[in-house]
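Curious: why these numbers?
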Amino acid sequence: MHLTLTRHESLAPAQQQELLDIALHAEQIRHVGDIHGGLHTLTARPVCDIQGFVLLIDDIPRGFFVLKRGSLLPDWARERADVTTTLHALMIDRRFQGQGLGKQCLRALPALVRDLWPETEQLMLAVEVGNHPARQLYLTLGWQELPESSCNQAGFERYLRLTL
């Protein structure tokens, strides 16, 4: 099995079509949306502040995520906007979950972000309090919960940071 992370815009037309086949469990869609919503975020402007990445397994799209910076940062990540990049819509096709692919994407993320936007000093993300598997994955990989996101009620988000 050959794994590659590549920019969304570099996909061949057939791969663009295959990307639309990424499927998630209903509970995951509630947390991150679906592939159509993820792709729609790539229409944001300015394009220099957003980038979509695709996880290819043997050249077939099986995962996707979005990175944002600058003017496209959410309000909760604006305190150090000049050095912050945020992660959004990380999704792995449900038929390929449980194989460590999300973990591999997250481990590759610091180098990928440094290459894309070298001024980045920290990565941030928001995760719903009830999304225990995702929260545990991020914490295991060194992300730290920010104290101002301490609400434990369903529907609320926690904010996490990874210092590069």
User: Anything to note?
Assistant: The chain has one domain: 3-163. The radius of gyration is 15 Å. Helices lie at 13-19, 26-32, 35-41, 101-116, 132-140. The chain has a mean pLDDT of 93.
